[in-house]
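lol forgot to send this yesterday, sorry. struct tokens for the thing we talked abt
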């Protein structure tokens, strides 16, 4: 298994803005700190061969939920999106071509149009010119094409090939290697490209370095179970991969961004992390997206 070093930490400490989650305010006087930090997620059940995940009845589909998970002495915000009910979409600019800029701005834009926003987080790595560095697809429209550059610079390209997180037109999700993504493009509704891939078929793709930074990533546990993860604490890529595999039951996971670039807005929970600037975003909506968010 190749050893992949992390880039050096950024020169400046990231700026953070936190609002106390309302669920934390509701904890009773008898609760302890250990109870608050207790992992709240249940590991998703793998789909049976007789009844694949996409065919399960919708009446048991779960609403998307933001929960706090502690794993290996670090705290994470985890959003579970059951695609039988939730919608996961990519965003960059509004209908007038203006970048959203922050997760909170996008969340408010969606809410004004009737969207029930569970969470908004930053998407994949971007360029110094503030454009997505790789594939970016919104509602079936390719805004930025697949990046197949043969380079060794930065996390985006290591280990090669990097990966694409995609929501397909049939309502299922997948993480695929970038060198295999072209065949998938006609079926893609939403997509972001980044790197490194953390897990492939349940195994770590590399042994990463020990640099600890705040990080954002996405994982797929089944065709309809997507996990969006934003770490509260600095973590290694190895720990992040282990979280997806051991706690969340994901077979595939993709690093999105981190360090001085990490964003999360969950309006209903009063959570906001904005260490920008930002370019692309992933939104998780409870139920159908508003019409204005579909037409570009």
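and heres what i got for the seq, position by position
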């Amino acid at each position: 298994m190749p050893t992949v070093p992390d880039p050096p930490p950024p020169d400046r400490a990231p700026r953070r803005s936190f609002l106390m989650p309302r669920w934390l305010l509701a904890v009773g006087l008898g609760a302890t700190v250990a109870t608050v930090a207790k992992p709240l997620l249940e590991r998703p059940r793998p789909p049976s061969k007789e009844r694949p995940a996409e065919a399960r009845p919708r009446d048991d589909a779960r609403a998307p939920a933001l929960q706090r998970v502690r794993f290996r002495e670090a705290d994470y915000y985890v959003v579970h999106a059951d695609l039988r009910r939730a919608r996961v979409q990519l965003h960059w600019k509004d209908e007038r071509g203006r970048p959203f800029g922050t997760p909170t701005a996008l969340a408010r834009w969606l809410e004004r149009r009737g969207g029930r926003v569970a969470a908004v987080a930053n998407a994949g790595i971007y360029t110094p010119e503030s454009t997505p560095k790789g594939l970016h697809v919104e509602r079936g429209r390719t805004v930025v094409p697949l990046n197949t550059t043969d380079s060794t610079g930065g996390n985006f390209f290591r280990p090669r090939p990097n990966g694409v997180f995609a929501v397909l037109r049939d309502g299922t999700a997948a993480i695929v290697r970038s060198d295999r993504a072209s065949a998938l493009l006609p079926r893609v509704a939403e997509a972001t490209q980044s790197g490194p891939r953390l897990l492939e078929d349940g195994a770590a793709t590399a042994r990463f370095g020990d640099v600890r930074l705040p990080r954002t990533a996405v994982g797929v546990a089944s065709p309809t179970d997507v996990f969006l993860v934003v770490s509260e604490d600095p973590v290694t890529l190895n720990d992040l991969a282990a979280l997806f595999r051991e706690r969340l039951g994901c077979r595939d996971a993709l690093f999105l961004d981190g360090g001085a670039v990490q964003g999360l807005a969950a309006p209903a929970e009063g959570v906001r992390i904005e260490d920008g600037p930002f370019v692309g975003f992933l939104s998780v909506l409870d139920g159908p997206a508003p019409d204005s968010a579909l037409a570009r």
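The longest strand covers residues 74-82. anyway ping me if u want another try
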